[in-house]
Design brief:
Elements lengths: L6 H4 L5 H9 L5 E2 L12 H14 L1 H5 L8 H12 L10 E4 L1 H13 L5 E4 L5 H7 L5 E4 L11 H4 L5 E4 L13 H14 L3 E4 L15 H5 L3 E6 L11 E4 L5 H12 L4 H12 L2 H27 L14 E5 L6 H11 L1 E2 L1 E2 L12 E5 L5 H24 L15
Parallel strand pairs: 1-10, 3-4, 3-5, 5-6, 6-7
Antiparallel strand pairs: 2-8, 7-8, 9-12, 11-12
The protein binds pyridoxal-5'-phosphate (PLP).
């Protein structure tokens, strides 16, 4: 039998990161690669208690098919939580999703035709590029001055179906836009008639000060806002949410129905029991402490070990450092040597929709204890130093031998 693939399937590609994670699973490898939360921080006992309570109090409702919109009390909780952050949200605008990854998929299905323009940051979240790519969009890289996309770039994006933005502890760069840039961007997007899709799974994971209010707080009906319980509770629950303008909500709901009817009601009730019971009041400060300590350890190790010419900015929240190596180095070509030496990372190139910057890498500190972070960064830095020396020794005009096939 010859199976003829749909054009959208041709656009589906293996995730470069998932391929790298397979390498990182080798015994003894210190993985700075995954975007996973620290498993030792999962609130296991609280989940056990909440599960028992759900099964004791509403076993049949929890195990039955449920509403596509999501579990009412959880939608109310999300709306109340967002109102406390200055967003004018009603529960009727909250759609519970199977992780925020599903929210991205639904947004793409509802808003994109083949050839539609999506404006993105460079770099941007690889999973969003993957979610939107089957809709065959045209990417538009927003002009950026280092402090974020330039507000003027929104005028250049006029006609785009939406701008996909991650202003808070971005994956992969860890960057957090300040309040002034957020205001200017949201206003410029409204002026240009460009809708905003704001992805914010890391906002609660701040280490120094809380981030400024989301773009959606200013853009109102001009924004879809996505969030998740994956990073604050556990990704295995697969519970996220999106907030949509009232006019758009019914279409997203219909796409949700077509995709999976509803997010598991059992999981939603467990999440609701946890958050409504006040777990986050104690859990979040503990999580922030753990990640702050790891952020500090990685920052110190990078400063101690990386050669001059490498650049990074310590993130003020989230899970990632974004490191720029000296120009001319290709992070992907260093990965096999790094894994052989016992450390894994994610090369930066897959996070660019066009013109990748090969001398970049994403390092996650979330799952590694401080002493192992020191060891992992020292190992990685030795490989970078070696590559810097080799590049300096390479005669001009002679390309170094390829080290590794293309990722993914
Ligand atoms: C920026 C961003 N958006 C969305 C997701 C998807 O998260 P989930 O589907 O677990 O809610 C991730 C996961 O790492 C992410 O980093």
């Amino acid at each position: 039998m010859t199976w003829t693939l749909a054009r959208r399937a041709e656009r589906l590609e293996p995730s470069a990161i998932r391929e790298i994670l397979k390498l990182a699973e080798r015994p003894g490898v210190i993985s700075l690669a995954g975007g996973l939360p620290a498993a030792e921080g999962f609130p296991v006992e609280a989940v056990r208690d909440a599960t028992a309570r759900v099964l004791a109090e509403t076993p049949r409702e929890a195990l039955q098919y449920a509403a596509s919109e999501g579990f009412g009390p959880l939608r109310e909780w999300v709306a109340g939580h967002l109102r406390a952050q200055g967003l004018g949200v009603e529960a009727g605008q909250v759609l519970i999703t199977t992780g925020s990854q599903q929210g991205l998929d639904l947004v793409g299905k509802v808003l994109l035709d083949a050839g539609s323009t999506v404006a993105v940051e460079t770099p941007t979240y690889l999973g969003a590029l993957q979610a939107f790519a089957p809709c065959e969009p045209r990417w538009l890289a927003l002009d950026d001055d280092g402090a974020g996309p330039r507000p003027q770039a929104m005028a250049a994006a006029r006609g785009a179906r939406f701008a996909y933005l991650l202003p808070t502890f971005q994956n992969p760069s860890g960057r957090c836009l300040d309040a002034a840039r957020r205001h200017a961007l949201a206003d410029a997007a409204l002026d240009a008639g460009v809708a905003i899709v704001e992805d914010d799974p890391y906002g609660a994971l701040w280490f120094d000060d809380p981030p400024p209010p989301p773009l959606a707080a200013r853009a109102g009906d001009g924004a879809v806002y996505l969030g998740s319980f994956s990073k604050v509770l556990a990704p295995g629950l697969r519970v996220g949410w999106l907030v949509a303008p009232k006019r758009l909500f019914p279409k997203l709901l219909q796409a949700k129905q077509a995709a999976d009817l509803h997010t598991p009601g059992f999981n939603q009730r467990i999440v609701h029991a946890l958050v409504a019971g006040g777990l986050l009041d104690t859990h979040l400060p503990a999580l922030r402490r753990r990640y702050r300590e790891r952020r500090d350890a990685m920052h110190a190790a990078l400063a101690r070990h990386l050669p001059s010419g490498c650049r990074w900015t310590p993130p003020r929240g989230g899970m990632f450092f974004w490191v720029e190596l000296p120009a001319g180095l290709d992070a992907a070509s260093l990965l096999p040597r790094a894994v052989d030496a016992g450390v894994a990372f994610v090369p930066g190139a897959p996070f660019f929709c066009e013109t990748p910057q090969p001398n970049t890498m994403r390092l996650s500190f979330a799952t590694v204890a401080p002493d192992r972070l020191e060891q992992g960064v020292a190992t990685l830095a030795a490989i970078v130093r070696d590559a810097v020396a080799t590049t300096a020794d390479t005669p001009r005009g002679v390309a170094p031998p390829p080290q590794m096939p293309a990722l993914g």
